[in-house]
Amino acid sequence: MKTITIRGIEPELDRTIKSNASAENLSVNQWMLKVLKRSVGLEKGKVFIRHRDLDSLAGGWTKKESDKFLEDISIFERIDDEVWK
Question: Which domain covers residue 57, as residue numbers?
């Protein structure tokens, strides 16, 4: 395998690379290889991107809040026979 050295990496780019690699649980080398392969068409990216921006909202209701919500929407489960005549 070849080794390539890239010089002139600015501090902001360095931080971004390390942050992205860490977020994907990859080493910097693994992440760079993945990005390089994708950029030249040797590896396809994921079709579906997993977003994490709403994770803090998922499962955030207490039992009491959940019961209240289900009670509030229960009206939508009833069929209005007058409408269907």
Answer: 11-77
Q: Which of 37, 34, 28 is nearest to 9 (CA)?
A: 28
Whether residue 1 is contained in a domain is answered as no
Packed helices 28-39 and 11-23: angle between N→C axes, nearest 10 degrees = 100
How large a percentage of the chain has pLDDT more than 90? 53
In a domain, 52, yes or no: yes
Count: domains in the chain: 1
Indicate the Cα dihedral angle 47, 39, 18, 6, nearest 10°: 170
Q: Give the gyration radius of the chain's Cα atoms.
A: 25
pTM greater than 0.70: no
> pLDDT tens digit string along 47-70?
677 777 777 777 778 889 989 999
Asked whether the beta carbons of 24 and 31 are under 8 A apart, the reply is yes
